[in-house]
Design a protein that fits this description.
The complex is a heterodimer of chains A (254) and B (219). Chain A is of the alpha/beta class. Chain A is built from 9 helices and 10 strands. In chain A, the strands form 2 sheets. Chain A has a 6-stranded mixed sheet, with helices on both faces. Chain A has a 4-stranded antiparallel sheet with strand order 2-1-4-5, covered by helices on one side. In chain A, a hairpin with a 2-residue loop joins strand 1 and strand 2. With 219 residues, chain B is mostly helical. Chain B has one domain. Helices cover 83% and strands 0% of the residues of chain B. Classes of the chains: A alpha/beta (254), B mainly alpha (219). At the A-B interface, helix 2 and helix 3 of A face helix 4 of B. The structure holds adenosine-5'-diphosphate and magnesium ion. The site of magnesium ion has 3 residues of chain A, from helix 1.
């Protein structure tokens, strides 16, 4: 479980996160949603330690990051997997080396043993026989899968995903969402997914945190999000034509 | 770490040899011809051609001007490779895995650049060799005169001076472009701009360092 209390983050004079508190539960896919620029990525980067909040605490299993010693930090790094928006695969390494990279950093296993694990996770994300290809030689959807493989190769307890299905066709996007949810359940880990995709919200939104201008304005599940009358949330949810049409059909039926 | 350093040696040093050899050979030839063409006074010995070629190449052309060319080649390569890692979040990915990305990316480049003096030594040799061929086979001087000039008032300290500054330029060539790439923000367009900036800044710092080192060591 990850607990966030009153976190604030500014860049220069701009306050991007204005005091956010919430919890992300274990075994669930937790979503952070909101429009572009609402601070989702900054919040995620605060949680993985890329940014230091100016105020507030982030607690992993009730231990605050700011109070951890260096050994606890190292362990947390090892227990954290992250899927970046563009994949962030290392261009200079092939797929196998990319996925093996965290193993090489965190374990002193022999290469054959690491290779077994690499092939195991690549198979888990339905990729085979691409070990020797380079990131520039595979499709966007495959890159996302490889990044997922790299993020989970070390059996993380916490998985963070920034817009995992941006830039993908709807079908591939759904497959990636489902993959993330399955992995979360199989391994009983805490997953936080940043998205602005309503399909993801419907598919995997077990807990949803809605951000607007750096503030948390609503939280709940995907069953509740269609019932709320919070104007910011309904504006967001029904900004897509499809959902507007669905709502109109529902209204006409009643 | 060893693999990383070897890869950087290949990218930064080995892959620069071709252009360095090409430029120094022909510029050496031109220096020799230019000196010959400006020697109208019959009282000045023909050996001056060899002497002038040696001095210009060892003191300035090979260390300083080759380094400016390397600021364009090696410098923009470093900035664009680190910069594109920044904008595609590969640097963030390293940090999330608990890796000190600045060390990881810059340190191997710095080590690789310790081999940079070899490049400059090759530039010196080929520059003088090019000067010799152009001078002798262009009919401006004889092999004997040129060789006498090459050996005329040779101060080993000049060579030391040349390699001291080469060493400083190597450090500048590894660090300034890395810094330009590492701290950039934006997208692909900004990577291009950062590479251009990197060339400008690296050149300026090399030229100023050259001035200061020359003032300190030679005057
Ligand atoms: N490293 C940074 N330095 C300065 N401003 C930043 C930085 N990262 C993000 N921001 C700003 O924070 C705001 C929120 O950005 P972000 O979290 O990326 O939005 P999104 O919700 O689309 O992911 C934006 O206005 C952005 O310009
Ligand atoms: Mg974002």
């Amino acid at each position: 479980m990850i607990k966030v209390t009153e976190i604030k983050k500014s860049f220069g004079g701009d306050e991007v996160l204005k005091g956010i508190s919430t919890t992300f539960e274990k075994g669930k896919t937790n979503l952070v949603i909101g429009r572009s620029g609402s601070g989702k990525t900054v919040m995620l980067k605060c949680m993985v330690g890329l940014f230091k909040p100016n105020f507030g605490e982030i607690l992993f299993k009730d231990k605050a990051i700011s109070k951890m010693d260096s050994e606890a930090h190292r362990v947390l790094r090892e227990e954290t997997g992250m899927l970046f928006q563009g994949g962030a695969l290392f261009d200079s390494m092939n797929i196998e080396e990319n996925v093996m990279f965290p193993l090489r950093m965190f374990s002193n296993k022999e290469k054959p043993e690491m290779l077994l694990r690499v092939n195991e996770v690549l198979e888990r994300v339905d990729l085979k026989n691409i070990n020797n290809k380079f990131p520039s030689e595979i499709s966007g959807g495959m890159k996302k899968r490889v990044s997922i493989a790299r993020a989970i190769v070390n059996n993380p307890k916490y998985l963070f995903c920034d817009e995992p299905n941006s830039g993908l066709d709807p079908k591939t996007a759904t497959l990636i969402d489902q993959l993330i949810q399955e992995i979360t359940r199989e391994n009983n880990i805490t997953t936080v997914v940043v998205t602005h995709d309503m399909n993801s919200v419907m598919e995997i939104g077990e807990k949803i945190v809605f951000l607007k201008d750096g503030k948390l304005v609503w939280q709940g599940s995907n069953l509740e999000i269609f019932k709320t009358d919070n104007k910011d949330v309904t504006d967001f949810v029904y900004s897509s034509d499809l959902f507007k049409k669905i709502r109109n059909i529902q209204l006409n039926e009643h | 770490m060893k693999e990383l350093v070897l890869k950087e040696i290949d990218d930064l040093i080995i892959k620069s040899l071709g252009i360095v050899a090409f430029i120094s050979f022909f510029v050496g030839g031109v220096i020799s011809i230019q000196t010959a063409l400006n020697l109208e006074n019959p009282l000045i010995p023909k050996s001056l051609i060899g002497f002038a070629t040696r001095q210009s190449i060892i003191l300035e052309f090979a260390p300083t001007f080759m380094s400016i060319i390397m600021a364009g080649k090696v410098g923009s390569f470093i900035t664009s490779s680190i910069g594109s890692m920044r904008v595609t979040e590969q640097i963030d990915a390293l940090e999330v895995m608990g890796i000190n990305s600045l060390n990881y990316l810059v340190f191997p480049k710095l080590i690789a650049m310790f081999f940079y003096p070899f490049i400059i030594a090759i530039a010196m040799f080929l520059g003088i060799f090019g000067g010799f061929l152009a001078g002798v086979y262009g009919g401006f001087t004889t092999a004997t005169d040129f060789t006498i000039g090459l050996q005329d008032s040779f101060y080993p300290f000049h060579l030391a001076y040349a390699f001291i500054k080469t060493f400083l330029f190597a450090i500048i060539l590894a660090t300034v472009p890395s810094w330009q790439g590492y701290y950039m923000r934006g997208g692909a367009l900004e990577v291009g701009k950062a590479s251009t900036n990197s060339f400008v800044w690296t050149s300026i710092i090399i030229i100023l360092t050259n001035y200061i080192v020359t003032q300190l060591l030679l005057s």
